[in-house]
Amino acid sequence: MEYTPEQIENRLNSLPADIKQAMSEVDTTTAILNVGKKNGLHVDQMGELLYCVGLVMLGLEHSQRFADIIIEKVGVSPEQAEVITADINNEVFLKLRESIKKIHEQHSSQNTEIDNRPLAEKMNPFEQKHEGEVLNKDKILAEIENPENIIENKVSTPSVNINVQIPVIEPPMPAEPFKMNIMESKLGGVTKLPMQEKKVEESGVKIDPYREPIE
């Protein structure tokens, strides 16, 4: 389970003096790090181990679940978790056993709500209501006696909004005529030169096409 910084801060403020002192002492941190080194944990795993020990000392997690917690958080095998748990118990938890026990008892009593309602009321299936919902007992009995009314009430025609504005689709703009780059046209061998018309200048001499040329 993840805890917010506010939850952790609230627990820190309500800790007994000996637990606060133990959490701030270098010896406690050193003992936890030594357990991590002994069991071959990496630096990041040691950080998670410190966090898990802190959760138990704050009373947010129970020491009986410590092995399961470090399996999830630290990422060790169940066998390795048992060894680490035994070491942490001997080095840390046993020294603060009574204080940790009081913390768990205190918060357990605060979180436990006593339900003094009659048994019939506890077992009433209609007791659980959504927020803002008012339960009408007569209406429920009427629906049980006449189940066809339930179907009629539940089946309703969905409302259709006829004032829907249809968007006007404008016709697409005509595409611009294709303009080929002159370099591309040259490289592609498709350059065409405009045809030129040769005009024969008119003169007073008429050439006979059937006459042989004079050398």
Produce the secondary structure layout.
Layout: H1 5-13, H2 17-24, H3 26-38, H4 43-58, H5 66-73, H6 78-91, H7 97-111, H8 119-122, H9 137-145, H10 147-154, H11 182-187
Helix pairs in contact: 3-4, 3-6, 4-5, 5-6, 9-10
Overview of this structure, please?
The structure is a single chain. This protein has 215 residues and is an all-alpha fold. It has a domain at 28-111. The chain has helices at residues 5-13, 17-24, 26-38, 43-58, 66-73, 78-91, 97-111, 119-122, 137-145, 147-154, 182-187. The relative contact order is 0.07. The model is unreliable at 112-120, 122-135 and 177-194 (pLDDT under 50).
Give a concise summary.
With 215 residues, the protein is mainly alpha-helical. It is built from 11 helices and no strands.
Task: Name the descriptors.
11 helices, 215 residues, flat, mainly alpha, 0% strand
* Structural class based on helices, strands and sheet pairing: mainly alpha
Q: Quote the distance from N terminus to C terminus.
A: 117 Å
Report on the biggest sheet: none
Oligomer: single chain
Task: Give unreliable regions as ranges.
Answer: 112-120, 122-135, 177-194
How many helix segments?
11
